[in-house]
């Protein structure tokens, strides 16, 4: 298959340096977007075509666009970091490209070649490189996504899709900084079930999570923890993050049962933790294990991890029946060590021994 080359149509009206600098001083998360975006079309029988890097602009959509009705849509999230020598690099973009392909298969969508996914991200970052924040934990968050662009109300896979990449400068996902989050164990609502779409990064999973997130907030909690949909006791993951349980120098993350998202941060930490001398495992943990092992002191720390949120400690847990402080409620030593190791790697302060960084 021939791959389209990305044609550049630069913006004639980018934000001024002063406007951009004002945004970069306090970017928040997902609130501001860079001057350009990538669009690539897919049509049945023709494949991928019309790859363009164009000015960031609204899309015009037919009211009968199939995505608006039946949600055939997937997305990814990855970050570009400024390196000490001033260059820019992304973290494991091929892993995101491959997960995007897996999401596409589950949602009956065409698979974008991994090379084209990476090239599209690279082209946007290069064009809008002035938007990559300079320091510390700040980064440029890339949001590749794809949706059905065919018009019609028949329920079937669309025969036209649009792949896009947009970019947004990102500060901390949780505005309070590294502050432990409180979590709500969702026993009423479930996120996903084996055979469903839980392992795909598709919009419907997030739409379905919002009512539980609101329930968590009504109980004074920051985030939802999802349990398995059958027994309602096996820990799966959080709203946009995977979970790790720290037992002294052994860390355990819920195994990929088919209903949780295979996080790239989760996967990276299995390796980074072993590099640091910890034992790192996939396993199964129930809500009763969590409460008991916290009480008897063997479960020393719990943290969540994901691209947007990096590593965030869990400080307290609540459910309909129980309520406890995790450890002493403060960020734990192992959590903060892993957080530093991950960020040092991503920002080029330590050697990339696993070939995970993709320089532009
Ligand atoms: N779980 C869910 C539901 C997510 O949306 C995310 C974010 O992408 C993650 C886990 C963490 O995945 P990753 O580390 O690849 O960002
Ligand atoms: C990410 O970490 O990239 C996520 O997708 C989390 C959330 C913003 C959906």
TrEMBL record:
It catalyses: L-leucine + 2-oxoglutarate = 4-methyl-2-oxopentanoate + L-glutamate; L-isoleucine + 2-oxoglutarate = (S)-3-methyl-2-oxopentanoate + L-glutamate; L-valine + 2-oxoglutarate = 3-methyl-2-oxobutanoate + L-glutamate. Pathway: Amino-acid biosynthesis; L-valine biosynthesis; L-valine from pyruvate: step 4/4; Amino-acid biosynthesis; L-isoleucine biosynthesis; L-isoleucine from 2-oxobutanoate: step 4/4; Amino-acid biosynthesis; L-leucine biosynthesis; L-leucine from 3-methyl-2-oxobutanoate: step 4/4. SUPFAM superfamilies: D-aminoacid aminotransferase-like PLP-dependent enzymes. The keyword Transmembrane does not apply. Its cofactor is pyridoxal 5'-phosphate. GO terms for biological process: isoleucine biosynthetic process; L-leucine biosynthetic process; L-valine biosynthetic process. Keywords: Amino-acid biosynthesis, Aminotransferase, Branched-chain amino acid biosynthesis, Pyridoxal phosphate, Transferase. Its EC number is 2.6.1.42. Belongs to the class-IV pyridoxal-phosphate-dependent aminotransferase family. This is Branched-chain-amino-acid aminotransferase. It comes from Streptomyces lavendulae subsp. lavendulae. The gene is ilvE1.
């Amino acid at each position: 298959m021939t791959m389209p080359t990305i044609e550049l149509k630069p913006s004639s009206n980018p934000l001024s340096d002063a406007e951009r600098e004002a945004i970069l001083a306090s970017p928040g998360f997902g609130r501001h977007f860079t001057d350009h975006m990538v669009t690539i079309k897919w049509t049945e029988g023709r494949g991928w075509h019309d790859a363009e890097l164009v000015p960031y602009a609204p899309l015009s959509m037919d009211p009968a666009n199939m995505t608006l009705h039946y949600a055939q849509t997937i997305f990814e999230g990855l970050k570009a970091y400024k390196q000490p020598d001033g260059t820019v690099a992304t973290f494991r973009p091929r892993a995101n490209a491959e997960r995007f392909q897996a999401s596409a298969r589950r949602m009956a969508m065409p698979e974008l070649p991994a090379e084209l996914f990476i090239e599209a991200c690279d082209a946007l970052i290069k064009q809008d490189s002035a938007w990559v924040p300079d320091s510390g934990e700040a980064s440029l968050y890339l949001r590749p996504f794809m949706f059905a662009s065919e018009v019609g109300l028949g329920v079937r896979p669309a025969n036209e899709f649009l792949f896009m990449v947009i970019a947004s400068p990102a500060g901390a996902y949780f505005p309070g900084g590294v502050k432990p989050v409180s979590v709500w164990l969702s026993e009423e609502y479930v996120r996903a079930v084996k055979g469903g779409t839980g392992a795909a990064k598709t919009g419907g999973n997030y739409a379905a999570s919002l009512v539980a997130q609101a329930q968590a907030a009504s109980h004074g909690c920051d985030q939802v923890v999802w349990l398995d949909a059958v027994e309602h006791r096996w820990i799966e993951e959080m709203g946009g993050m995977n979970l790790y349980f720290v037992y002294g120098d052994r860390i355990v993350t819920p195994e990929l049962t088919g209903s949780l998202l295979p996080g790239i941060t989760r996967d990276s930490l299995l390796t980074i933790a072993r590099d640091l001398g910890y034992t790192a495992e996939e396993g199964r943990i129930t809500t009763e294990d969590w409460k008991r092992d916290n009480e008897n002191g063997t479960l020393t720390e719990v943290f969540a991890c994901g691209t947007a949120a990096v590593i965030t400690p869990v400080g307290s847990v609540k459910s309909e029946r129980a309520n406890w402080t995790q450890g002493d409620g403060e960020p734990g030593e192992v959590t903060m060590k892993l957080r530093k190791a991950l960020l040092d790697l991503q920002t080029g302060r330590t050697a990339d021994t696993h070939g995970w960084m993709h320089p532009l």
